[in-house]
Design brief:
Length: 454
């Protein structure tokens, strides 16, 4: 029996796959931390024959080359991909065999110019599934603008026809196995369901139910900014990255962390926002350990900088190291476990006042700046009437737009982005107050709410 095992990576909104027949296996789009894949292979006693990439990825560092070399498997991508190492180049229609499995390559450009999908069939010719990468997703498609604005229109049109080609050439009962769409910025919108088939996609995938112009208009209107670290992923994958090394970096004491902070290292404090706000080192950036950690940090932390991780315990630090390695942050100088009171009395110790929206009441407008760090689509649906709008990920380039000499009151929708922004603002020399409150777009409490068009 042929089985497809899904490996979720919630921190990036992606999936990798192991397809096997009980003895032979094919791995599709593995993440850099290939120990997860190796665990599956060892548990089931599987021999990997092929490691396949649907495309040169833009949102994570691949583990494909390292896995293929470790297992002596064939490493395959589109023959037209420009890579710095030897690989098995595939063309449209090429057929691969692995035990009882048959895998057919389909050229499906759109997410990237050389994107391939892989149709998984049994020996009798029954299509069991299709690995669609960033092409056909669950109720949506992969975005076409990551290569650059000069190719967006061309790739968007190709994406429409590629999704239709998949629907035309793959049997209706086949399961759809996309790489993106579960929180990844590589998808045009997020997945509308947890699983799907070709038949199901015919009912709601915009490339299959809309005209080409309707599809393009909707696609372009929905494209949002994506993390700045994306620009480094293609070159990293084309160069042939090494596998994730889980070896912990050196353990540092407070004096060493402070010295590195003063030398320019980025100290990433992974504690929860309230513990951080109560006592932290000025210059540290707070980002709680949660699934969106890589995207949040990958947007504001310079890719080439050295990092020091601070957290409550070794497990938190190890998981953050894994998450960051998936997007290529390898320059970890060290780590420190911060117990309660670690920073108390230090000359760099700072605190941040944490309030709810009603904390703004009674504060004269001339004594504060209200900073809205949500995305633009959230801001235009409703915001505090006095708010200065700078999406948190634009702060590194736009921080000087925030007036100095007055307290900055910062809010987002749930407090997570506002906390990162608040710590960044302290790093930049501002006095801040964190508004840690929940609000939906169009529902920002305050003296007066200004809605869209107002």
């Amino acid at each position: 029996m042929i089985e497809v095992i899904t490996l979720e990576t919630p921190s990036l909104g992606d999936r990798s796959y192991v397809a096997h027949d009980g003895s032979r296996a094919v791995v599709v789009d593995p993440q850099r931390d290939i120990d997860r894949v190796l665990d599956v292979l060892h548990e089931r006693g599987l021999d990997v024959t092929h490691v396949l990439e649907t495309h040169v990825h833009n949102d994570y560092v691949t583990g494909g080359l390292a896995l293929a070399r470790m297992t002596d498997a064939v490493y395959a991508l589109n023959a037209d991909d420009a890579l710095a190492f030897d690989f098995h180049g595939l063309h449209d229609g090429d057929l691969l065999e692995s035990g009882l499995m048959r895998v057919r390559a389909l050229l499906t450009p759109g997410h990237t110019p050389t994107h391939l999908s892989y149709v998984l069939s049994d020996a009798e010719g029954n299509d069991l599934g299709v690995f669609t990468g960033g092409s056909m997703l669950f109720g949506t498609v992969g975005r076409p603008d990551l290569i650059g604005p000069h190719m967006t229109a061309e790739l968007a049109a190709k994406q429409y026809h590629s999704v239709r080609r998949i629907a035309d050439e793959v049997q209706d009962a086949a399961q759809v196995h996309p790489t993106h769409g579960f929180g990844s910025h590589c998808s045009a919108t997020q997945a509308t369901k947890p699983s799907s088939t070709i038949a199901a996609e015919r009912t709601d995938n915009p490339a299959l139910v809309k005209s080409e112009q309707e599809f393009l208009d909707e696609l372009f209107a929905g494209l949002t900014p994506y993390p700045t670290y994306y620009r480094y992923m293609g070159p990293a994958n084309a160069a042939g990255p090494a596998a994730f090394d889980p070896t912990p970096p050196d353990e540092f004491d407070l004096d060493r962390v402070v010295a590195l902070l003063r030398e320019g290292a980025w100290v990433i404090d992974l504690r929860n926002r309230k513990d951080f706000a109560a006592s932290f080192l000025a210059g540290a950036v707070n980002a709680e350990l949660r699934n969106d950690l890589p995207n949040y940090l990958g947007w504001i932390v310079p890719f080439e900088e050295h990092l020091v991780l601070v957290g409550d315990d070794a497990e938190v630090l190890a998981e953050a190291q894994r998450m960051l390695a998936r997007i290529g942050y390898d320059r970890l100088q060290g780590r420190m476990i911060a117990a309660p009171g670690t920073f108390a009395g230090h000359e760099l110790e700072r605190t941040i006042r944490v309030v709810r929206f009603d904390g703004l009441e009674g504060v004269a407008p001339e004594d504060r700046t209200v900073l809205d760090v949500r995305d633009t689509w959230e801001y235009v649906t409703g915001h505090h009437r006095d708010a200065l709008h700078i999406p948190y990920h634009e702060l590194p380039e736009r921080v000087d737009e925030v007036p100095r000499g007055r307290t900055v009151w910062i809010y987002c929708a749930t407090g997570a982005r506002a906390t990162i922004a608040a710590s960044f603002m302290v790093r930049s020399g501002y006095d801040v107050v964190l508004i840690d409150d929940f609000c939906l777009p169009g529902d920002v409490p305050g003296e007066t709410l200004v809605g869209a068009g107002a």
